[in-house]
């Protein structure tokens, strides 16, 4: 977009190629020709940017300075824009690489947590004997409780013979049931 004719000032929007998930980075460069262009560098600035952090912007400005110095005496806008285009593509690749590394790091951390969950106390003779003593005491306590429950249940329960001896109506109950 041409902004003015004297001095010639224009903007060029440079967008990277789409990365994963159609991510792009973009910047708009403003160029102003000086009187002695191309024997002196044009004035340039970044007037807008998308998805770029401050470090990336500084790297683009340094790249523009370097390319402008290398191309003194030649028409250089195309070269500058091409260099910025390549830099933006590199940034997209770096973002992709960074995300992949973060994903791998999270997977590694999850794997380590999983290993830690299954990593117990190393078994030594002393550890085992202490555990065995506690385990045997718990088993003995459970058996005692079970035996007490059986004894209490056994005292209240009468056998079939005892029931018949206590209640003589049970002698004839089956015959009455059959007759009905």
From TrEMBL:
Residues 1-91 form the RWD domain. One of its GO terms (cellular component) is cytoplasm. It comes from the Eukaryota. InterPro entries: GIR2-like, RWD_dom, UBQ-conjugating_enzyme/RWD, ZC3H15/TMA46_C. Gene3D superfamilies: 6.20.400.10, Ubiquitin Conjugating Enzyme. Keywords: Acetylation, Phosphoprotein. Residues 99-117 have a biased composition (Basic and acidic residues). Residues 99-118 are annotated as: Disordered. Belongs to the RWDD1/GIR2 family. Protects DRG2 from proteolytic degradation. This is RWD domain-containing protein 1. It comes from Centropus bengalensis (lesser coucal).
């Amino acid at each position: 977009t041409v902004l003015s004719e004297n001095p010639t000032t224009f903007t060029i929007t440079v967008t990277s190629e789409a990365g994963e998930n159609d991510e792009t980075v973009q910047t708009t460069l403003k160029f102003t020709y000086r009187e002695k262009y191309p024997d002196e560098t044009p004035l340039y600035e970044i007037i807008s940017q998308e998805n770029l952090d401050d470090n990336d912007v500084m790297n683009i400005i340094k790249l523009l300075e370097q390319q402008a110095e290398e191309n003194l005496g030649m028409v250089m806008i195309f070269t500058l824009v091409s260099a910025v285009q390549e830099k933006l593509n590199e940034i997209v690749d770096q973002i992709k690489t960074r995300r992949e590394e973060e994903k791998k790091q999270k997977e590694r951390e999850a794997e380590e947590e999983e290993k830690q969950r299954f990593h117990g106390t190393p078994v030594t003779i002393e550890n085992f004997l202490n555990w065995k003593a506690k385990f045997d005491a718990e088993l003995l306590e459970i058996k005692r409780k079970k035996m007490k429950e059986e004894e209490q249940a056994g005292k209240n329960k009468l056998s079939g013979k005892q029931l018949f001896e206590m209640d003589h109506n049970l002698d004839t109950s089956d015959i009455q049931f059959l007759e009905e």
